[in-house]
Amino acid sequence: MPSLNFMGRKLRNHMVAPAAKQRAWERSSPSRCADENKGGMSRIVQSQPLLWAQNELPGSIQDLREEVQHQPCNVHSTHLDQENNTGVWKCGGASWLRKSRMKWNSFKRWMSSDHPIEESNTRPKEPNVPSVSTKVRDREDDTPTDMKIFIPYDSAKLCITQIADDMLAMKSRHLEMVQELEENFLIASQENQEKTVHKIRTYYQNKLNALKRVLHLYQEKVERRNVLWDEKIKILQSVNERLQDEQKALQERNRHDSATWEREKSKIMELFSSRLDQLHNHQASTLQELQMARTEMGRVQEMLQNSKEHQTKECVDSGAPLEGAKARLEVLRESLYKKERELSMLIDGGGEVLNGVAPSAYTRLLAAVIRQAHLVYAEVTEAKQQFDMMAEGNRKTIADVRNKVTSIQEIQTDMEYVEPSNRKDQSEIITSDQVTQAVDLQKHEVLQLALDCIKMGVTPTINGPVSEDDVAALDESVKKFEENFTHGDVSNLEVGKSVGQQLLLLQAELKQIKEENKKMTEYYTAERTLRKKYYNIVEDMKGKIRVFCRIRPQTRAELAKGSNTIVSCLDDYSVILETPRGPREFQFDRIFTTEHTQDDVFQESSRLIQSAIDGFNVCIFAYGQTGSGKTFTMLGDREQKNPGIIPRTFTRIFEIIQENETKFEFKVLASMLELYNDRLQDLFVSPSEAVSKRIEIKKDKKGLVFAQGAEAKEATSAGELFALFELSSANRHISATKMNIESSRSHLIISIMLESRNLANGSMTFGKLNLVDLAGSERAAKTGAKDDQLKEANSINKSLSALGDVISALALEQAHVPYRNNKLTQLMQDSLGGNSKTLMFLNISPSDCNLDETLTSLIYASRVKAITNHAQKNMESKEIAQLKEVIFRLKSGQAVEEEDV
Ligand SMILES: Nc1ncnc2c1ncn2[C@@H]1O[C@H](COP(=O)(O)OP(=O)(O)OP(=O)(O)O)[C@@H](O)[C@H]1O
């Protein structure tokens, strides 16, 4: 049975009409729809009616294709309507078919025109099944036009139903696809949007971060500057306060002196001003006289003029002379000239004759007054100021008055051009004005002269001829004046002078007291230092553990952070820590500041090296938080430009040995151990070898602690000892903390056994010198330690806390001291509270960022100071030493000489 492919599906259950039947159908349908074939309908449609009448549907593929390809809506509806009318197409499926067709067509249009890509994307072509449109087109091309295929009604119906189903399915699929596409699009756009937003956000976030960093740097800079300024301001403030205090004290002292002086001063000033007033009054009266003389002269001149006119007339009339008038005029003129001379001399400062006083006597009088005044001026500061102010004010007034006088003179010159009738009145006004100004000017000039003379202590020179009577009169007045000065008014001046002198004396006394104070302070400090020194020696003799505190300088990191210094030194023995609750003072045996060198530090500790050689157990150890300067103190810097206690000790040991080699025979043995993660390690062997080595802490019969299993190597020079130390340093554990500082993560214990034999008596001494660089105490959280580092930190803290417990127990003199709690305390047993001289270095940071650690360390070290050791010399007599030697030789199978026994 032949099958049809339709829309990619095989159509089964359809009947293909036999060829004969088809041909008959073709023949019997010549022009069935001739009228309807207006829109170019195919021939198939035109030839249908006959068969339709026989209840047979147009079942050819061509028909279906036609229906599918064209827009048959109106045509087919007409056609179907017709069929309905004829009752052939009765199944009621026309509208259904139409709808399907319409949907199909619209879908086809959508597929072919608008969404070619989507079609290919969403519905991949099956390789062997062509798409509907292609297939139909192919068939159009391939199928001969005269070929007819008849499909039975049932098959067609089924086919159409299937098509409809397909279409519905397809529609729903496409709707889904559209929806999916829309969703995809939405998601994609959303993603795009989010990506863009993310990109923008990241870009701006980066920018913001960079800006923040810059801002942070600036802030740090500003903060650092602020801190510096604050410090400077503080210093300035303290200086200012000190100055203010001093000023207040001086003011206080001056106040009651100046009150007395004020009174005396006003009296002196009154005296001066009354003297000056007298002079001024005299000048004024002289000037008035002069004025009167001038007026009189003017009147006489007028009279003369009148009489001239009269005389001329009379002469003309009678010829008599004007003898009387002339004589009077001469007298007047003479008196006027005299007055003018007096005045000018007075103004020039050198009056020939003043009020009947001769110049030499006048000079003496003036000199006496000026001498007294100058004394006051020179010795009393307030008086000096007052005088200077007065002189300045007076100078200004003189300048003003001179200006006025000049302007009056100018007016006088202009008067020459004024009408003679007006001239008289105006000249009178001007003259009176001139007189007032002249008096004023003289008054101030005299005052200025007096002030200048007082200031410089000189007497103005007066020239001119002097009569005998004048001299006698003046001598009399000078005497009177001097008497007045001595017995009466002048006493005030004396008081002023004595006040000034007292002031000077007081100042000198103050200076002396200050110097004495300074000396006293120096003596006190020296005394205190000496007392402490002796105290230290006594404590040393008693065997107390001595604690030195060393303050390191601020590190670069701390300076960069802008940390403040909170540790200061009161003296060589007291350190003060500024805490939020106020300053706390701690006392130690010695304080070393940043100004102290490695040499200073070693000098203080070198006495103990001699003790070790003398047969004592000596322990020097450094304690402090990480980075506080323990290694710097014990070992020095990495380049060994500033060697610490350990290398210096090596050198010193052999220096002492060399100094005593004629009297003693020495043997130096060294062992170097590390306590890392609660494990003792011999540093003379590599870490890999050390793993298999077991070291145990033991005590010998004398109670001296030693590490069994650790090598002790002999050194015959400082160089050898140093080489041994370098060898051990290479095997040490160090790590970098968060602060990026190379940090010791283990406790370093260097034990130097010093054996000496007295060549004179054969006695043996055994000293042990323990040099310990403890690992840094630290807070794990602060250093950011993790894993191995955290383990290290825990182990270090555990050992240090065990050390703290031992210290507490020893300080409180408890019966049980928990030495055995940790290997560190076990090792240090004979150094702490044992048979030892112990020196502890407490290293601290001066910065506020380490306040907590510094405070803890200071408290810790304060407790250590309370411990008393019982230092004893490890010595054996010659006999014991010899017996030991014999026993040793016997044990080792050597021959024993009689002498030995
Ligand atoms: N007195 C000092 N003068 C100058 N620099 C010092 C002084 N003390 C310490 N330093 C410097 O401070 C830094 C830290 O010192 P150091 O390594 O000695 O500390 P530490 O306490 O031994 O640290 P850790 O416990 O981590 O080993 C070093 O760079 C050191 O040079």
From TrEMBL:
Domain Kinesin motor: 544-867
Pfam family, one: Kinesin
Biased composition (Basic and acidic residues): 115-126
Keyword tRNA-binding applies: no
Main location per the UniProt record: cytoplasm
A GO MF label: ATP binding
SMART domains: KISc (SM00129)
Subcellular location: Cytoplasm, Cytoskeleton
Keywords: ATP-binding, Cytoplasm, Cytoskeleton, Microtubule, Motor protein, Nucleotide-binding
Any single GO CC term annotated in Swiss-Prot or TrEMBL for this entry: microtubule
Region of interest (Disordered), residue spans: 18-38, 115-141
Residues noted as binding ATP in the record, renumbered to the chain: G624, Q625, T626, G627, S628, G629, K630, T631
A Gene Ontology BP annotation from the UniProt entry: microtubule-based movement
InterPro entries (alphabetical): Kinesin-like_fam (IPR027640), Kinesin_motor_CS (IPR019821), Kinesin_motor_dom (IPR001752), Kinesin_motor_dom_sf (IPR036961), P-loop_NTPase (IPR027417)
Gene3D superfamilies in the cross-refs: Kinesin motor domain
Superkingdom as given in the UniProt entry: Eukaryota
Family: Belongs to the TRAFAC class myosin-kinesin ATPase superfamily. Kinesin family.
Name under which the protein is recorded: Kinesin-like protein
Biological source species: Silurus meridionalis
